Amino acid sequence: MTSIGQTVAYRTLCWVTRMLWKWTGTIEVRGLEHLPTAGPCIVVANHESYLDPLLLQAFTPRVMHAMAKSTQFASRGMAWLMSLVYSFPVRRYQPDPIAVRTVLRLVAAGRAVMIYPEGERSWDGRLQPLRRGTVRLLLKAGVPVIPCRIDGTYDAWPRWGKLARGGHVTITYKPALRLTELSLAEATRVVESALGAPSV
Predict the structure, then answer these.
(1) By CB distance 3.0 to 4.6 Å, which of 45, 59, 114, 130 could disulfide with 148?
(2) pTM score, two decimals?
């Protein structure tokens, strides 16, 4: 598929998601002025639910290249679908140099990358400890890091829920973090602080 065809497919799937969510729940997106309209950046978001990547991509004007767990690419059909929404695989719980190189290649090309630094969905709706490897990647990339706080998706579709129940979701983009001069521990605290507090 050509890049134009992939972009059309991506936009179409985002539109379908927005239409479906209108039948299921409500959503409020705040702080889009903090998300660069062009140029490299990494969006880091808390991860409450399977709904997070669907809603983030659907309700964000800019195309997002999302890091997703490698098991979602296990079948040929799912791998094709994930590629349509610009997702790329990462192996969880172990170093993955290919995923790291993919992120660095994307930001070098001026793309926006979406990462969930907890590495998995929340078990209880609260922010889980951040993966040290992900924070190292943020430091190595050296591009603006945009925190994105998601609220409501855990209630709409918790980890143990079989189906989404719907509800109200708030997506809040916050001012960019400049992490390049920080140590790993300092950068971890800064990102946790930006993502840990529910939006009000």
Answers:
(1) 45
(2) 0.91
Distance CA 38, CA 111 (A): 8
- Cα 148 to Cα 8, 46, 81, 98: the distances in Å are 25, 7, 24, 25
For the four alpha carbons of 156, 120, 170 and 57, in that order, the dihedral sign comes to: negative
pLDDT averaged over 10-residue windows placed end to end, the chain, 200 residues? 77 94 93 96 96 94 91 80 86 85 97 95 92 95 96 91 86 94 95 80
3-state secondary structure of 29: strand
φ, ψ of residue 177 in degrees (nearest 5): -100, 135
| Distance in angstroms (rounded) separating the CA atoms of residues 138 and 152 | 26
* HEC string for 134-196: HHHHHHHHCCCEEEEEEECHHHHCCCCCCCCCCCEEEEEECCCECCCCCCHHHHHHHHHHHHH
Q: Which domain holds residue 7?
A: 3-196
d(CA 1, CA 24): 32
DSSP state of 115: E
Cα 158 off chain centre by = 17
Kindly report the CATH number assigned to the domain that includes residue 182: 3.40.1130.10
